[in-house]
Amino acid sequence: MQSVAVGAFGAAPALIKIAKPVPQAGQVLVRLQASGLNPFDWRLGDGILKDKLPHSFPLVLGVDGAGVIEATGPGVRRFKAGDQVVGQFLFGRVGEGSFADYAVIDENAVLSHYPNTLTATSAAALPTAGITALQLCQRLDLPVGSTVLIVGATGGVGSFLTQLAVMKGLRVIATATHDAAAQMRALGAGATLDYHETTLERWVNEHVPERIDGLVDLVSDATVFTAHLALVRRGGVALSTVWSAQADELDKRGITGGNFEIKATTQDLDVLVTAVAAGKLAVRIDRQISLADVPAALAANRAGGARGKTVVVM
Ligand SMILES: NC(=O)c1ccc[n+]([C@@H]2O[C@H](COP(=O)([O-])OP(=O)(O)OC[C@H]3O[C@@H](n4cnc5c(N)ncnc54)[C@H](OP(=O)(O)O)[C@@H]3O)[C@@H](O)[C@H]2O)c1
């Protein structure tokens, strides 16, 4: 079967043939129909978890995936052959990922059933970016009507977070390069700002002189994130998904929050599947690609410019 893998940490991902996996005790074998691409995929190839979990090489990349269970290993209780599932193909070991025709995964991984009203493409876009957005939104413990600035809003996480924050009654200001402004407004952003044309400081000082209540920064390094804290009012919340928050800098400004780390659960994935199936949450698909396109798409994602989700269709 075809898969996209790296042969060593930091190596270029490549399309390779490997043997179809066999489900062991407690595992299911999924015939993948679609896989969502995330920045986490190339970070895994770079070795972000190399000191935390065992890895198998060639390291098949891809975390998010949706498809149909073809077989189950001994002792599996939650699933049966023929079930349509979506989840994260990462459970205790890195390298048996979803950029492949088939993958095995433990039945206790983050894995949900999804209804026929969802396409595999929409389902596969959900797990990592959707759960991150849902949990970020839960950390935005702010009153209805509060203003939240999302930096890096036009990609996977930001497209979901914008909608979820608006549903919670927050007013979203989204950074958006000019081509993406209309898209972000369609997702519910009350205002957009193009960081190529103005600075966040200038924009906030002009439009929200009382300062913002919440900041979710999906892209900035520690120096830039710390500078952005000046835009947040005392008592507000600031979160970084890229480990840029320094506790002392937040403390001295009376801001709560800090670095965010996803703790993915099947329950949260169920919430997202239900919201999409009910038409309450839109899945913004940027590009649909094939497995052969994945190496180039990973390189492109590193360079920026995502507009919603890139999904691999098998
Ligand atoms: N800590 C965690 O648990 C966790 C969980 C999930 C994701 N993450 C991280 O969160 C980040 C976002 O994830 P994602 O899936 O949404 O990524 P993505 O889909 O690649 O989107 C990133 C977006 O940021 C925009 N951007 C880049 N530089 C920017 C800047 N200086 N100012 C404003 N916008 C900028 C990009 O568009 P333009 O280049 O056109 O501006 C792109 O739309 C990634 O670094 C990911 O690894 C962390």
From TrEMBL:
GO terms for MF: oxidoreductase activity
Record-annotated Enoyl reductase (ER) domain positions: 10-312
PANTHER family: ZINC-TYPE ALCOHOL DEHYDROGENASE-LIKE PROTEIN C16A3.02C
Protein name: Bifunctional protein: zinc-containing alcohol dehydrogenase
